Amino acid sequence: MKILVTGGAGFIGSAVVRLAIERGHEVINLDALTYAACLENVASVAMSPNYSFVQADIRDAMAMEALFNGHQPDAVMHLAAESHVDRSIDGPGAFIETNVNGTFTLLQAARSYWEAKGRPAAFRFLHVSTDEVYGTLGATGLFTEDTAYAPNSPYSASKAASDHLVRAWGETFELPVVITNCSNNYGPYQFPEKLIPVVILNALAGRPIPVYGKGENIRDWLYVEDHADALLLALEKGELGRSYNIGGENEATNIDLVRKICAILDELRPSDAPYADQITFVTDRPGHDLRYAIDPTRVRDELGWRPSVTVDEGLRKTVEWYLANGYWLDALLARHGVGERLGQG
Ligand code: NAD
């Protein structure tokens, strides 16, 4: 397939690009190269004859039209987004512009291209979204695809809105769409403003390791390469108009996760004192959802997908990657807002 991947210089998008190329697909990586992007993430495939890169903004209707007509993709995997909840609290406007208006512009461009080509049945528009659209769970229960949307942050509200647009373009214009809602990802190349790289970075620098509130929030952690695998399966086998929840079956409280990372660092890069001594509880994020957990029955039964690693295996691989790739991390630390406490409301 010739796949247009949006946001392919970001964390998850780059994992999708690397895996799609490895599996023999042709990839056009479209990315605006915002603060969160890094072309180094796709350096391992950049010389492939099946890879091309276009710097463009999904909000730019003319650029999107030219891109579709010029490259004639068989499918779109839409990952470009503003993705950091804390930044969405400080500046929600960018989230509405990219996640809502940008998705609208991309849908319109995809639709006119698809219609001009005679509405090919094999065309796909895969929209990559988050489990955060469902809001928060209490101590029990799981998110299914039928759970009502109840987003609590500007980020999750903007993603929920984009999901609704994609669904509507499928129902009204019959654009062949599939939606995925995934739990928290972690792994190599994650931008150093998200929890796991922040923990590794601060631990190694001898700084306090910030944990929001009491660290009791629960997330269902998924290794990014497993997510990329699920997304390619959803593209190839997902039923039209259907959404798929993707989760790691790896629930952990933030404090347990941080302690696990500290223990791996103690083993791989021993210091004078245990890294866990650096853990510091800080003011909680406003509107911080207590618990996310995914019921993966549909993705497992219909697409035959399961995560390949446990959280212990995935965390070890991740810590090893960050220890071996300090140069990658260093290059991103100077970017706007990195290392600052954002999103206090
Ligand atoms: P990221 O912030 O690492 O990457 C986003 C990429 O999109 C960046 O390369 C950025 O330059 C690009 N981008 C942003 N605005 C753009 C625009 N207007 N036009 C073109 N490109 C633009 O994000 P990520 O963590 O890789 O997330 C990718 C997708 O997966 C997002 O849609 C996110 O909502 C979703 N998601 C993320 C997680 C997670 O845990 N990170 C979980 C579930 C779903």
Our estimate of the beta-strand percent is 15-25%
Parts with pLDDT < 50 across at least 5 consecutive residues: none
How far apart the termini lie comes to 44 Å
Kindly state the number of beta strands: 13
Which class in CATH terms?
Answer: Alpha Beta
- What is the H-and-E element order? EHEEHEHHEHEEHEEEHEEHEHHH
Strand order of the largest sheet: 3-2-1-4-5-6-11
Please identify the structural class as seen in this structure.
alpha/beta
Give the helix level as a range of percent. Answer: 40-55%
Principal-axes geometry comes out as globular
Q: How many separate domains make up the residues?
A: 1
Rg over C-alpha atoms, rounded to the nearest angstrom: 19 Å
CATH T-level topology: Rossmann fold
Question: Taking all residues together, what is the mean pLDDT?
Answer: 96
The CATH homologous superfamily corresponds to: NAD(P)-binding Rossmann-like Domain
The CATH architecture category equals: 3-Layer(aba) Sandwich
Task: Explain how this protein is built.
The chain has 345 residues and is α/β, with parallel strands linked by helices. Helix content is 41%, strand content 16%. The chain has helices at residues 11-22, 61-71, 85-90, 92-116, 154-173, 195-205, 224-237, 254-268, 297-303, 311-324, 326-332, and strands spanning 2-6, 26-31, 51-55, 75-78, 124-130, 177-182, 185-186, 209-212, 218-220, 222-223, 243-246, 251-253, 279-282. The strands form 4 sheets. A 7-stranded parallel sheet has the order 3-2-1-4-5-6-11, with helices on both faces. A two-stranded parallel ribbon has the order 7-10. The radius of gyration is 19 Å and the shape is globular. The structure holds nicotinamide-adenine-dinucleotide (NAD). Residues 6-7, 9-13, 31-34, 36-37, 57-59, 79-83, 98, 102, 128-130, 159, 182, 184-185, 191 line the site of nicotinamide-adenine-dinucleotide (NAD).
